Task: inverse folding
């Protein structure tokens, strides 16, 4: 590449929704843009391309008014979300959807919280089906739009280091075709998805056994941006030990027909989840995402089993969008079935007396309205969503057990940013000319409640804001310290 090929006003790192939104918006505002994508394929894999496609804020329509969305964010995260980031998300999620529509991105309303889902929808069956579906179509549309605006997407370009000291602007050191290439820009946006596919960072923050956790993601977000940002003094947020993901059949570790769907959330919140000793270890009423994190924190993340009865299997188990009944057994997933709890315990290898006591105690607490007195307590203030249902008794034979695993899609914590997506240093001050967007960033999700808000909406809003802040500060009236 010549020097002119590697110089631009803005370099964006990562070609998912956050990166392509930032790149397109910056180009719309008159900036020359180069987007670096380490994938080499025309349809390079990334989480956005594989997405289920629903824009929401904690299962709430993203076109809702600001006050409603702020209340949802506060409730879902139990106050963990940084206030300025929460306000930015609540204010701009409707604007993001409208901007996407203006870019030619189609959405449809499938009811429930799926009021704004990318078209054509990808939630059509178990396993991974993405080509020609919503996320794939959106990325191809945004890339074409970027080209029309004069921007460039460079494939096979893996950013490895940043130099903020050059008087020439920010220098991005990237591997391109086995060679080092230096890209120079006035501003850089890190949007590479965080580290859900990096075993060492998973080991450091999530579980000492990353090999026992399913990579429920495209395998491309390996922490490059996270490491680059830390190397130039960026702060990181809380929530690095939390992730968005789901419990899946343990067979998904070796059977691609069982991930990313069907996930087991509806069964998890209706039944109980036990460890290798046959005991409950976390509050299933907090939902499937919470329980996926709880399983990841076990000494052995592959020791947990989901237990429920026939009424649950034929009720909530058959009613979600891509339900476990019948897709789990049809896809080859293990499901134990027995006429007694003692027989079921033998099938899954836990003490029969222990499991019987756990089930009996759970049923009594449910009957008497004392779920909060269980150990651990069980929430009763349930809210039915696609991810959760009320606790149901385990009384109707046959009884079922599903060995489970945890699947990680994205990490909730990440690079610290302000409301304009500027990367913050350890003194909470913006690092000049450095921005981050999408699931590479933190500050909204996680905390003790493991509050989940939604990756697509967060990614789009932070991408928009990064581009608009860059344009604002480079205008005649802007200043980097503003």
Result:
């Amino acid at each position: 590449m010549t020097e002119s090929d590697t110089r631009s006003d803005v370099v964006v790192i990562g070609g998912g929704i956050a990166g392509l939104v930032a790149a397109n918006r910056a180009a719309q505002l008159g900036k020359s843009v180069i987007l670096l994508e380490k994938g080499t394929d025309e349809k390079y894999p990334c989480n956005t391309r594989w997405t289920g496609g629903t824009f929401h804020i904690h299962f709430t329509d993203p076109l809702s008014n600001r006050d409603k969305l702020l209340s949802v964010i506060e409730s879902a995260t139990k106050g963990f979300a940084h206030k300025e980031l929460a306000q930015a998300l609540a204010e701009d999620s409707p604007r993001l959807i409208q901007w996407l529509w203006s870019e030619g991105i189609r959405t449809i309303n499938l009811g429930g919280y799926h009021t704004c889902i990318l078209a054509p929808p990808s939630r059509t069956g178990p396993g991974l089906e993405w080509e020609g579906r919503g996320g794939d179509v959106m990325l191809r549309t945004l890339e074409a739009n970027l080209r029309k605006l004069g921007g460039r997407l460079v494939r096979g370009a893996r950013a490895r280091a940043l130099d903020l000291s050059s008087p020439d602007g920010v220098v991005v050191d990237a591997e391109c075709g086995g060679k080092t290439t230096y890209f120079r820009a006035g501003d850089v946006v890190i949007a590479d998805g965080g580290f859900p596919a990096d075993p060492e960072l998973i080991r450091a923050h999530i579980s000492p056994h990353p090999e026992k956790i399913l990579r429920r993601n495209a395998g491309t977000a390996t922490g490059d941006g996270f490491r680059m940002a830390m190397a130039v003094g960026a702060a990181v947020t809380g929530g690095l030990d939390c992730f968005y993901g789901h419990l899946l059949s343990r067979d998904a570790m070796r059977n691609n027909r069982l991930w990313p769907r069907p996930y087991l959330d509806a069964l998890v919140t209706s039944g109980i989840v036990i460890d290798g000793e046959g005991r409950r270890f976390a509050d299933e009423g907090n939902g499937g995402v919470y329980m996926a994190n709880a399983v990841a924190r076990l000494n052995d993340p592959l020791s947990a089993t989901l237990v429920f009865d026939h009424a649950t299997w034929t009720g909530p188990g058959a009613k979600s969008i891509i339900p476990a009944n019948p897709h789990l057994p049809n896809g080859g997933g293990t499901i134990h079935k027995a006429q007694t709890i003692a027989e079921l315990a033998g099938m899954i290898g836990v003490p029969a007396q222990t499991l019987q006591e756990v089930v009996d105690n759970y049923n009594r607490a449910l009957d008497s309205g004392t779920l909060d007195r269980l150990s651990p307590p069980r929430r009763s203030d349930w809210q039915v969503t696609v991810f959760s249902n009320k606790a149901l008794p385990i009384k109707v034979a046959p009884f079922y057990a599903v060995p489970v695993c945890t699947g990680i899609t994205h990490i909730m914590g990440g690079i610290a940013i302000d409301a304009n997506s500027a990367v913050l240093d350890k003194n909470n001050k913006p690092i000049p000319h450095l921005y981050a967007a999408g699931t590479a960033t933190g500050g909204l999700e996680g905390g003790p409640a493991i509050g989940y808000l939604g990756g697509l909406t967060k990614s789009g809003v932070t991408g928009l804001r990064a581009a608009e802040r860059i344009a604002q500060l480079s205008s005649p009236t802007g200043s980097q310290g503003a």
